[in-house]
Specification:
about 375 residues, nine-stranded mixed sheet, three-stranded antiparallel sheet, 15 helices, 12 strands
Length: about 375
């Protein structure tokens, strides 16, 4: 028998995020031997195994999973188990470790690197998006592997930054390994896999089991794989804070980006800082210092922006800019200038380091 079939049998029976997974492996490190023992004497079932799992273990056999294994082989899905040398070593440390981890992309990035999770709200502000992207980009350029969940919002920003840096990144899914959610991230997933990154899930191809709680369950894997968990922006009640709870349970340090006291999007991160559950994250170097990594050589500093160095129109626009992105129409109304002159002024400010363009042709002051 291929021992991997026994692992599939065991994982399928106990389900994801099994609280007694490590305890079970301490008794039966070889699932094939466990199956053979149960065939000889069903009374050897450990008492802590749930009734549902015990029933599955008794009614199914490892050979029932041959079709799944064949499908994985044909579609390029790796099924990693705790006795596989490529299985993520950091996941072996947790009590509810995955008994099977399905992987697409390059499994070699799962070990031997420095890892930082970048997480946050799925409905971020422009500030949150910029922070997640730029902090992840700086860390990735220094060789850090960004870990996240391929969700909408700040998860995606972390992965995109790593891809932009040409570095591998790891995404943990709350869906079957052959499902990308949201589907709009299909292209991003393909780029992750093409750049030697990995997409991982506890749920096999064509998974039809329970879906309640699967995204919360995957949060523990993000926290476990990371050496430091970074929160760019989060509400007071959010799945992001669930990841923080896991990080605290596993002894992973947490960093949080401070935000406006008037922004609901930053209430969660500000509360983490206020209660000292997180340290301040303002620059990629903060991540690197926590990882003990060396930063890339800093670029030569540009001279500080001076309004005196730009035209009168640019000065007028600069006076109306702040940290909140403003569109051309709003700047026209604020300055009394026509659109063509406001556009020219914004371009001038960008060139001289006084403003930065945001998505949707909006601008903030630097």
């Amino acid at each position: 028998m291929d021992k991997k079939l026994a692992w599939l049998w065991l994982a399928d029976a106990v389900g994801s995020a099994c609280q007694y997974a490590r305890e079970l492996l301490a008794l039966w490190p070889d699932p094939e031997q466990f199956w053979l023992a149960l065939q000889e004497d069903p009374a050897r079932m450990p008492a802590f195994v749930s009734k549902h799992a015990a029933a599955r273990l008794e009614s199914a056999t490892p050979y029932d999973f041959e079709e799944r294994m064949d499908h994985c082989l044909l579609t390029g899905v790796e099924a990693l188990t705790p006795d596989d040398p490529d299985y993520p070593a950091r996941l072996r440390e947790i009590p509810d470790l995955p008994l099977v981890l399905y992987v697409t992309g390059d499994k070699t990035c799962l070990n031997g690197h420095r890892y930082a999770a970048m997480v946050g709200t799925r409905r971020p502000s422009a500030y949150g998006r910029q922070a997640a992207y730029e902090l992840s980009l700086g860390a990735a350029k220094a060789g850090v592997v960004i870990v996240s969940g391929l969700a909408d919002g700040l998860d995606s920003e972390g992965h995109r930054a790593a891809v932009e840096a040409g570095m591998p990144t790891i995404a943990f899914l709350g869906t079957a390994i052959d499902v990308t959610f949201p589907s709009s991230n299909t292209t991003l997933r393909q780029r992750i896999e093409a750049l030697d990154g990995a997409v991982c899930s506890e749920y096999p191809p064509h998974y039809r089991g329970k879906t309640t709680g699967t995204f919360l369950a995957r949060n523990r894997l993000i926290a476990a794989q990371a050496q430091v968990v970074c929160v760019a922006e989060a509400r007071l009640r959010s799945g992001t804070l669930n990841t923080v709870h896991h990080a605290e349970d596993y002894g992973r340090p947490v960093l949080a980006v401070p935000g406006s006291i008037y922004s609901a999007m930053s209430q969660g991160t500000n509360e983490l800082l206020r209660t000292h559950r997180a340290e301040v994250l303002c620059r990629a170097q903060d991540i690197l210092e926590r990882l003990g990594a060396e930063a890339q050589p800093a670029a030569a500093e540009l001279p500080a922006f001076s309004p005196a160095s730009v035209s009168a129109d640019a000065r007028a626009v600069y006076e109306k800019l702040g940290p909140t992105p403003q569109g051309i129409d709003a700047l026209c109304a604020a300055t009394g200038l026509p659109a063509n002159r406001v556009l020219a002024a914004c371009t001038e400010l960008e060139l001289f380091g006084g403003a930065q363009a945001q998505p949707g042709r909006r601008y903030i002051a630097l």
